[in-house]
Amino acid sequence: MSSGRIKKPVTRRGRRALDAREPKTIENPKKTLIMEGRKCSHEIRQALKDMNLFKKPLVSLMRRNNDVTMFEDATPLEQLAKSNDCHLFMFGSSSKKRPNNLIFGRIYDEQILDMVEFGIKQYKSLQDFKSEKISAFVKPVIVFNGYKWKLTEELRRIRSLLLDMFHIDDVSTIRLQGLEHVLSFTITEDLTILMRSYRIMLKKSGQRTPRIELSEMGPSMDLTIRRTKLASDDLYKTAMKQPAILKVAKRKNISRDELGNVHGRVHVGKQDINVLQTRKMKGLKKTAEERKADRVKRKQGKAAAAAAGAADSDGNGSDGEGDDGGMDVDSDE
């Protein structure tokens, strides 16, 4: 009889392992679980080995064969993914009904979210190409060619799954010498997916920008879509939901034109000009001509005031003498 209690970790290593698996605002790069089925062909084994080289070190490779039927009961795979802390998986098998079978999938909340079964029609491994290879843990440039990727919801989910499978980490900036690897997925008219891998070579061009050439280095495979198991729309939206702290806040009164220039609208409230400090503002200082004109105007004003004062004093003196003469005459009388 189980008690239903949660067993807490005893060692520090166990506590660190549990802390690393807890949800985070910015998640760690996803690990991929690679495993073989009960029966595998040589092409499937070689394809899984090449995928293991591409995904290193974010990969967990199962060495023994596993008797798992993915579309009937995927519980063993979900348990293995949980114990190895993997959120992506590749499963290869081969049978008479479905030869060269390769399954890509991803896991959300310890359950399978999306799962797509491909059939390999043509495969060339890394060893078949004698060109120079890339270094380990190189972030690839992923390119999707073809207009049919956006025709149906199923193809859009497959595109998202492939992007999530080979995506390593988000980067804000990258230097030109850091671009070494290109993964190309081309969809044809009959919905065959052509996966090609190229190495980027920078050649001299006589200019500052080098000339770029692509050299195919493998692996190369043609994939046909067989069976799909996609999550419902509600579960898919829940899995794609981002924390509110990562969402960019919308900036009001900001717009961009066709050339990418930013235009903003500023709302200024009513201002009282009388309380503004304008004494030390350079934009309001008078020019030399204005100061000279003010000095001339002040001098003219002073001269006019002095002339007016002198005229007033002369007029006041003549009036006093007339008054005195009249008083004298009156006194004689």
What does this structure look like?
By secondary structure, the protein is of the alpha+beta class. 30% of the residues lie in helices and 26% in strands. The protein is built from 6 helices and 12 strands. It has helices at residues 12-21, 42-55, 75-84, 153-166, 233-240, 288-332, and strands at residues 32-36, 59-65, 88-93, 101-108, 111-124, 141-145, 181-187, 192-203, 211-216, 220-229, 254-256, 262-264. The strands form 2 sheets. Strands 1, 2, 3, 4, 5, 6, 7, 8, 9 and 10 form a 10-stranded mixed sheet that branches. Strands 11-12 form a two-stranded antiparallel sheet. The longest helix has 45 residues, at 288-332. The protein is elongated and about 135 Å long. The termini are far apart. It is found in: Nucleus, Nucleolus. Keywords: Nucleus. Residues 1-15 have a biased composition (Basic residues). This is Ribosome production factor 2 homolog. Residues 30-234 form the Brix domain.
Q: Based on DSSP secondary structure assignment, what is the total number of beta strands?
A: 12
Helix % is 25-40%
Major sheet details: 10 strands, mixed
What do the pLDDT scores average to?
84
Structural class by SSE content: alpha+beta
H/E series: HEHEHEEEEHEEEEHEEH
Say what oligomer this is: single chain
Over all CA atoms, what is the radius of gyration?
Answer: 42 Å
The low-confidence runs, each spanning 5 or more residues with pLDDT under 50, are 320-333
Count of individual helical segments: 6
Distance between the termini: 150 Å
Q: What proportion of the residues form beta strands (DSSP E)? A: 25-35%
Which of globular, elongated, flat, extended, rod-shaped describes the shape? elongated
Region (Disordered): 1-22, 282-333
Protein name: Ribosome production factor 2 homolog
InterPro entries: Brix, Rpf2
GO cellular component, one term: nucleolus
